[in-house]
Protein 1
Amino acid sequence: MRTRIFQKLTAPLKSGKKCYWVLLDPDDFSLVNAAEIARESESCGADALLVGGSLLYSNHFDEFVAKLKQSVSIPVVLFPGDAAQLSRHADALLYLSLVSGRNPMNLIGEHVKAAPIIKESGIEPISTAYMLVESGAVSSVEFMSNTRPLPRNKPEIAAAHALAAQYLGMSLVYLEAGSGALQSVPSEMISLVKRTIDIPVIVGGGIRDADTAVEKLTAGADIIVTGNVLQKENGINIMREIASAIKNFGTK
């Protein structure tokens, strides 16, 4: 099912442009700080905000999403770690199936729990194949999901998973190195996945500067996601540089 928010999120890709999404974890920001960063993200050119994380220590998730929605005009999209991370204030959610793993809860279990809530709330679900890739360290999502990541030196395995996801009717493929990754998703893997499938490819994890973002775009990424860069002292400036590089990609 590809509906209004999905079309808005992917519209730039149809004209050959690339997209930049900023991930905000409610555990990392106060409501005031999140609103400020959200506005800054929009002003520097981010196309959407993602909200979520592998863990959830804070108890203000719904209020957090509402605050972001009030602060920006770009789509606010849930990036849920489980069925508890839902909010009616969001525009949409990435309906993530962790196809790189074999844990049934992350393949379908959490989805069944969340489906009635999603329907009742009116949030637009965007079916997304979530693929965890080895990054040189055990990420939060790897530990919490109890799944092994795809080997980074086996791009053909990633490509086969992505193609299976497309054949299952998923709308997006998300290649993820994980929060705080030591290494980003290999460019060789991105390239092979992109050549193999016909749906947009999102790449996140370990992208800490504009040069790395450009490298992933050159390899074939359609959408770049960053999150942890905002934890750095100069995180806002790094975000601006990444956003500028993405917006200017292919124009020179």
Note: The first strand starts at residue 19 and ends at 24.
Protein 2
Amino acid sequence: MISSPDVFNMSHVARFVRRTNADFLSYDFLYQKVVQDIRDRLDDITRKFNSVLLCGEHTGQYFLDVFPDAVVMDIVLPEKFSSYIGQFDLIISLGHLHRANDFPGVLIQMRRALKSDGVLMAAFAGGETLHQLRASLMQAEIEVLGGASPRVFPFVDTQHMAGLMQRAGFALPVVDSEIFSVSYRDMFHLMEDVRGMGESNSLMAKYRAFTPSRVFAHAAEFYKKNYGEGDAQDNQRVMANFEIIHAIGWAPHESQQKPAKRGSGQVSLTEIL
């Protein structure tokens, strides 16, 4: 069997994260919002979690205090816990699945790590994230350099995520997304936030050559022209979208509600319509 080539350079991912550790809390406004969403969803689950796995570079700092009576493990990369079979009541995955090289494989490992009727709660970036920035940089590279460097992550959308969770063996998957629009002074202030979050370009296929400054200047003008707020271009701010996908799924258990068998309905739709 031939393995698929890696999409992300994980050593670069680790370097970008280490580089931001000291100042991360100055750039965690999206994490703060997503963490509150996950906490609200946890409140809707009326059960006690005795064993919890926290996945992601920063997950522990936001959730360790939520489970004072539980045994909690905090790891960075979900690829590293394949030996944990049936050990956890809850797995929280925050802000890293969009950089998984083997997305379906990671989901399978997560499901296997759960106890029967255990739950996975995941939140990660979706395809609408920074589409304005990606388009502006691509257009600038085409016009200035004659070609574009790979900058688009292979994002998963909500429909695809639901299918992947079912394939991984999760029961009762629920997937939804929310888009946050953030106003910035200009493209460069947005890029500072992106670096501060540890989300610099880690694609294996990206160009290694130095990008001339005129590419970024051209991209900033394109961004302002096409995604600016208001009419006075000199003082325009620009908008940036961040899409967060939330996914919840359960390890199968006999007590869970089962979907009705195909053809088991007692009333014909023709009689209703």
Note: The beta strands are 51-55, 71-75, 88-94, 114-125, 171-184, 238-250.
Protein 3
Amino acid sequence: MKAIHGGKAKNDKIDAHKIAVRLRGGMVPMAYVYPPEMRATRDLLRRRCHLRRKRAEVLAHIHNTHSHYNLPEIGQKAAYKANGEGVAEPFPEPRVGRTLEMDGALIDPYDKLLGEGELSITRTAKAHDVHTSARLQSVPGIGTTPALVIRYEIHDIARFPRVQDFVSYCRLVKYAKESAGKPHGLSGNTIGNPQLKGAFSEAAVLCLRLNQPWQRVLCQTGA
């Protein structure tokens, strides 16, 4: 609203008039009203994604610390309690080992919170629309949680008039920048729904992992 000409004065009446003028001219798209009874579950799913990222950062720090000190790779997933024991022993500096011990102590609480949250989400999803989630899981690469994310973030696919609109909403399209007929790279990396992009990216990786013919095609095309 501040970028609009004559926008120094600001109050509810002025803002409402500016928004109405832009709606009438088609410059502001109509927002989609998400069903109130499903919003709490969708927000819990989004919070789960945040906790998953934080957990991944902790695990990445443990593995990267070994690389920084030119030590051999752990070789096993540090997320498992049995594998996480002893990761701080190879370091001669005790403070480095203490740092990794702090990282290891954070993994168990994250796992507990994520497990409890996913159980609550799964139980609630059965009351909303269990059939759609089950059909999504029949797609190669889409597991239980990604199916729930896709279900709750989209809700109604009919709200997208074109396939291009849906792909753009999923953060899967970048926009070209151009000035005076010359391209200046791409932009728009943060325009769209980050949860949907994460779910589809995870599904694509898992699908390729289990599909050798597609792996060969990608290797041949250089993708």
Note: The beta strands are 175-179, 182-187.
